[in-house]
Structure of Proline--tRNA ligase:
Amino acid sequence: MRLSRFFMPILKENPKEAEIVSHRLMLRTGMIRQQSAGIYTWLPLGKRVLDKVNAVIREEQNRSGAIELLMPTLQSAELWQESGRYDAYGKEMLRIKDRQDRPMLYGPTNEEMITDIFRSYVKSYRNLPLNLYHIQLKFRDEIRPRFGTMRSREFLMKDAYSFDLDRAGAEHAYKRMFAAYLRTFDRLGLRAIPMRADTGPIGGNLSHEFIILADTGESEVFCHKDFLGFDIPGEDTNFDDVASMNAIFEKWTSRYAATSEMHEEAAFDAIPEGERLSARGIEVGHIFYFGTKYSEAMGAKVLGPDGKEHTVHMGSYGIGPTRLVPAIIEASHDDNGIIWPKGIAPFDIVVINMKTGDDACDTACGRLYSDLGKAGFDVLLDDTDERAGGKFATADIIGVPVQVIVGPRSIANGEVEVKDRKTGARETMTVEAAINKLVAAR
Amino acid sequence: MRLSRFFMPILKENPKEAEIVSHRLMLRTGMIRQQSAGIYTWLPLGKRVLDKVNAVIREEQNRSGAIELLMPTLQSAELWQESGRYDAYGKEMLRIKDRQDRPMLYGPTNEEMITDIFRSYVKSYRNLPLNLYHIQLKFRDEIRPRFGTMRSREFLMKDAYSFDLDRAGAEHAYKRMFAAYLRTFDRLGLRAIPMRADTGPIGGNLSHEFIILADTGESEVFCHKDFLGFDIPGEDTNFDDVASMNAIFEKWTSRYAATSEMHEEAAFDAIPEGERLSARGIEVGHIFYFGTKYSEAMGAKVLGPDGKEHTVHMGSYGIGPTRLVPAIIEASHDDNGIIWPKGIAPFDIVVINMKTGDDACDTACGRLYSDLGKAGFDVLLDDTDERAGGKFATADIIGVPVQVIVGPRSIANGEVEVKDRKTGARETMTVEAAINKLVAAR
């Protein structure tokens, strides 16, 4: 993408309304724009990051055996009356009447709808296990939306729903998703710690929140330091294998970790003092096993191998992509701006033309842009008329991992500078060497 | 994808509520499920097609120079009061009040919001031309939703919005999108004819509907037969070049074509009788140039090269992906089911194991599945326990372009059958020859 043809409205000033660094940087870099309280547009730069985060989530959901569909945003009130949550959900549910005066709602979550889909098609244990997910907008009418897309009203959620014949099957499903979440957050550059958590309005028997540590987190969390070093399940993980799933789950639940709602002072105090971690955290995922809560109320049953009807056991598993993006920024930035982890950055490489209009600079930039693009990189070429200082500041604040700087003096020797955004390390080399180095490091 | 692990609930019976073939086939094959009147879930098979259609739309939008963002579904009523459309829009607009009693609405389109975004960031002609698009859910509270996702209430729309300094610039933007639409529909296997059209509630001076001919179409259309043979702009089309855009536009508007609202009997009668086409059509795209209608009302101005303020000229450009999917089916099916054009099919190839559990069949299927997958194909392997006849019917109805049939008798000679879904042509060859043939034809 040539910056002269892109739409990336960088703000010169820090927006006053931003209380936390991710919100400030997302507004400054033109990633998002608030349309109404808690309702945001994802501008082109932000949309690129959001797409890449979604792609990672999707890959790991698919790897674990979950299947993607797409449920609508609007739901009929009837479904929620069946489960009993229509009245229970309170003011966070956005209730709507259509032109025929039928009561509807903007889905805050989809347990009811997916259970309705399940019961209408699946009649036999032979079709189990089943895990269906979608990445779809939700609306929760928060009384105090804040921190940009960290706590917004209209937000994107990946929500998966598992169906199993019995509790043992459902626990395997839960552990599959547990392992998939560990992989997902790791690929997003985050160390997320699964913590025992309250089940809230979803309900159920077993629940973990995945929390990343950050000073701006809304939750107070307590855990063992060992979590910082635990291994992440590899790409070759066999999610079908019960023993593997058990081993991962046991490892990652072998140490104390709890949010304040579930905190047990005595258990935490039993940890040697130097190994305790008491910090603030951001919830980036939440998984639930709730047995037959919805399947019972809504009649989701299958014939078992014994020829009898069984009410299915369910779980649900959420990740909020529109919250993950600011969470990643909270975890990865410096005074100059965002530092995107590889694979999530809006562009892989930014080529900075220090003197647009200079023949040698333009030619070298054109070659870098074209060759790196052909090699499969997402390249941003800063071909605008801005002065070099402004271009450097822009490249830093938007956090593209690698900068290739093309200036008139060095290009006279056929050389460019390659800068690593994270470490600040710079290296001077020929255009060809730069291309070869970047392609080799892919 | 192994069918035994996929979720594809094929219905045995034709659903009674379906009046047109696409609706019937989408329900039969488990592509969609109705949740409420005019509100659908896209089940996994349908979601795969929808994703591929969106990918084609996105590629062609990007190629033409448009930039993707993502606006929210809910909008504040205030914005629409500014443009004057809040009262004008009528009952199709879903009006909502949030917990603070603020009037909001589920966006039926985004002219107001994009104009608001534009005016808050763009102040100079130097940032023009600009075309911003998103692919986002819309809601229109149709009095009579019908034909499945062909006319639903919650639907997906790709809507692009162009901003230019003057009318000449806006006409170039209009013609860019005109050419992009020709390419898009062609890649989706459709012959879409641009027809002069009424501008409806969007308003404006110039408008074309892109119509495909189909007996089940809701519009009556009239055009010259020459449209069926016109060339589609190539991949190397230079969208920046005004002369190229003019040439394409002139060619494709050189013959009579109008919907019934804009029909002129006399002009149509002037066409020699054998060259007239009077038929029913499905609208698959609609483009508008409406000058300063919204920019004037909402104060979207830029400084021109003359140092003076200019109210920008705008256009908007819509395609409905959730309507395109059934439109493609209307245009491409036979008595046995859907016939997907290449590139849009939910899977590229289906490997049918006629006797799951038979060692030779299982081994050959495993190899085909693995090798074709590695070659980059989306492969569905029917490894279920169903009888062969049922598997053939399923492969036909879901419309995957190529079937590779592995049966115990032919595999004893090391052979499989390759069937073309569209022509019905079958060829027997070795497993290796089948793989080579399919990879070579990619």
Summary: The CA atoms of residues 415 and 430 of chain A lie 4 Å apart. Residues 167-187 of chain A form the longest helix (21 residues).
